[in-house]
Specification:
Length: about 675
């Protein structure tokens, strides 16, 4: 490994460790801390489904890296367990919330769970006995929860069986009846453990251990240019359910015999078997009950209005008058929905075009597009059916929209369309057509818009809409025309233009002119971009990066990256917006984008970055950048080892970017 680079897997784990920092932070409300544990568990689960398989292919380099990865995972899992057991549960108990895990149940609750088990849970339980007397295939569903039970029959023989924990059918956590002033919560795992004798009435239960299997879900379509691509994707979705094992989690209390039975029955390698706790799938903590709500929840930050849209009956009038920049989730996503809802019923709207990457399962936008088509509008929707883990949902909406008469374009061979863009064509009373565009850093997904920090930009300026026409034309015809002039588009000119923009800063620095580069992205691993940033650093250009997740570049390496500073911000909202900013000899250039500085984004996707020209909007972005760089509560400094440092001086005024941004927008509304 070069000394200024770090493996992406280690960098990603470093980011996930920041999530544990938030779970451990006593300044956060306890239910916010529980949420961060759920996020950490969900992230780690995806890591083993997507990123780990290639490391399990045997070679010297992979073996060493895999050992380091698993060592770090083990450290994080141990830390997770301590936070949950010794901090979260203690704080819940101090607030009269008792979580049953290993304690004896009160008689009232024992009766309650036995009734619940017999009447509800038992209808979902499937028991499989393991025997090797005859050939048989034993299969664990991906991400599902199971118990391996060791039994002893009346003849003294040991038997083994596994049974499912139906967390996919029932709520993982059940609130029991309150007793006096105390509230009680129990998991269905614990309910099943307590009722095992009802499943195995004629055998003695020796042990019961939680197990779970992750499977590889990072599929590859060999040839996207021939045959039915949709059929291939649907086939891969089914294959993913049967993917090879990447992680088998088992209870650390499991005895050697049970371990051997698992290894043999489920055809596992020892390297795939990882010790865990007595419970798995802690991402179910997203739905952990709060019987004393709103107590123990964090502060509430209701969506703020965007005043220019509040003072107009037509959203198109406001956009025509001025470009509009919105900040989600601080401001309401309602205006994006309003944009499409008004278009669906406006008699002067003739056409709607949109790219959809991840769609909400109950998408209001998709329903508005369906209404628009039924109202006689020409609607064209590009749906990216290769969006990982959203393929099924996107295929469903594709079919629903197609039935309504919408022209659906599904995926391009060897490319993913990750751009977030829409254009609505409106005809005036003279028959003249005007285009209105919406460009964003985030998905057209009203659910995630409440927890992802993103920008949304509305414009009617031809400089944007003419370029957007070229992008939509390419999606339709698969033929590139002239390059966009103002916007940057991966698949056209984005990577090349970014390299040119950094080059310009290098030249300006050498000429004694103002020069700097600021990038805020979710990931950075693209080698050409990294090499160019290092070249800028060597030339003395100040490079500041805010990178939420994977960042394979290490800062502060003497004579290589010593002029590069890298930060991470992890807080209540997921930092998802992308900003590219270049000093440009005092005439700043600022772009907002859907694209990270990852190889996949710049080389294998269609992305859009759009410039800001309005002085007011440039000031807003600079204000947000300033607040994020001044954050001393949630902003971590990434050091030259790739680790995160959070240092707060005792005499410092506490600054927290996300609450500061919210308060700044609220104050601006009052002026």
């Amino acid at each position: 490994m070069q000394n200024h680079l770090i493996p992406s897997e280690i960098s990603w784990l470093s980011f996930n460790n920041c999530i544990l920092d938030e779970a451990e932070d006593l300044n956060n409300a306890v239910y916010d801390r529980i949420k961060f544990l759920a996020i950490h568990s969900s992230n780690l689960d995806e890591f083993f489904r997507v990123k780990i398989n290639k490391l399990q292919k045997k070679n010297k380099k992979n073996t060493h890296l895999l050992e380091n990865v698993l060592r770090e995972v083990n450290l994080q899992q141990n830390r997770f367990g301590k936070i949950w057991s010794y901090s979260i549960l203690t704080e819940l108990a101090l607030n009269d919330i008792i979580y049953y895990e290993y304690q004896e149940l009160l008689p009232e609750h024992l009766e309650e769970i036995e009734y619940y088990f017999k009447s509800i849970v038992l209808s979902y339980i499937q028991v499989v006995y393991i025997t090797f007397n005859q050939p048989k295939t034993y299969f664990l569903n991906n991400r599902s929860l199971y118990f391996l039970v060791k039994l002893k029959d009346r003849k003294g023989n040991y038997n083994f069986a596994y049974l499912n924990i139906p967390s996919d059918k029932l709520d993982r956590f059940k609130q029991l009846q309150s007793i006096e002033n105390s509230n009680y919560i129990i998991s269905i795992d614990t309910i099943i453990r307590k009722c095992l004798s009802l499943i195995f009435p004629e055998e003695k239960i020796i042990s019961c251990n939680a197990i779970k299997l992750n499977r590889d879900e990072n599929y590859l379509i060999e040839d996207e240019n021939t045959g039915d691509l949709i059929a291939k994707i649907e086939e891969k979705i089914e294959e993913r359910k049967r993917g090879s094992a990447t992680r088998f989690l088992y209870d650390s209390n499991m005895d050697a015999d049970s371990f051997s039975i698992c290894k043999k029955a489920f055809k596992l390698y020892k390297s795939e078997m990882i010790k865990g706790g007595s419970h798995h799938n802690f991402f179910d903590l997203f739905k952990f009950p709060n019987p004393v709500k709103p107590k123990l929840n964090g502060a509430n930050y209701p969506n703020l209005p965007h005043l220019p849209f509040e003072n107009k009956t037509s959203i198109f009038d406001a956009i025509k008058k001025h470009n509009q920049l919105l900040h989600f989730p601080y401001q309401s996503y309602y205006y994006v929905l309003q944009f499409f809802n008004q278009a669906a019923i406006n008699k002067n709207v003739t056409e709607i075009k949109i790219t959809l990457y991840r769609i909400s399962s109950q998408s209001l936008i998709a329903n508005a597009l369906i209404s628009a088509a039924k109202n006689g509008k020409k609607v064209t929707v590009f749906v990216e059916v290769k969006a990982r883990f959203d393929e099924h949902n996107n295929l469903y909406w594709s079919k629903e929209m197609k039935k309504a008469g919408i022209k659906i374009i599904q995926s391009l061979p060897n490319l993913k369309v990750h751009a977030k863009a829409a254009m609505i064509t409106v005809k005036d009373k003279y028959g003249n057509k005007k285009n209105y565009a919406y460009l964003s850093t985030g998905n057209f997904n009203e659910s995630t818009a409440n927890i992802y920090s993103d920008f949304g930009f509305f414009t009617a300026e031809a400089a944007y809409t003419n370029d957007l026409k070229k992008v939509f034309s390419f999606l339709k015809t698969k033929k590139k025309g002239t390059e966009p002039k103002q916007i940057l588009a991966a698949g056209f000119n984005m990577k090349e233009r970014l390299l040119e923009l950094i080059d310009a800063e290098i030249k300006n620095k050498k000429a004694g002119k103002p020069a700097s580069v600021f990038l805020k992205v979710n990931g950075l691993d693209e080698r050409d971009i990294i090499d160019k940033l290092i070249e800028a650093s060597k030339a003395g250009v100040e490079v500041i990066l805010i990178v939420r997740g994977i960042c394979t570049l290490l800062p502060g390496i003497k004579k290589i990256s010593e002029n590069i500073k890298i930060y991470r911000i992890v807080d209540m909202f997921l930092e998802h917006s992308r900003i590219y900013k270049f000093a440009n000899n005092g005439q700043e250039k600022i772009y907002l984008s859907s694209a990270d500085m990852l190889s996949r984004n710049l080389n294998r996707r269609i992305e859009v970055a759009f410039p800001l020209y309005d002085e007011k909007h440039i000031e807003e972005i600079n204000k947000i950048i300033q607040m994020q760089l001044e954050d001393n509560s949630k902003r971590r400094t990434v050091n030259s080892d790739g680790n995160n440092e959070l240092e707060i001086e005792d005499n410092e005024t506490q600054r927290r970017a996300q609450t500061d941004i919210y308060n700044w927008i609220a104050e601006r509304n009052r002026l």
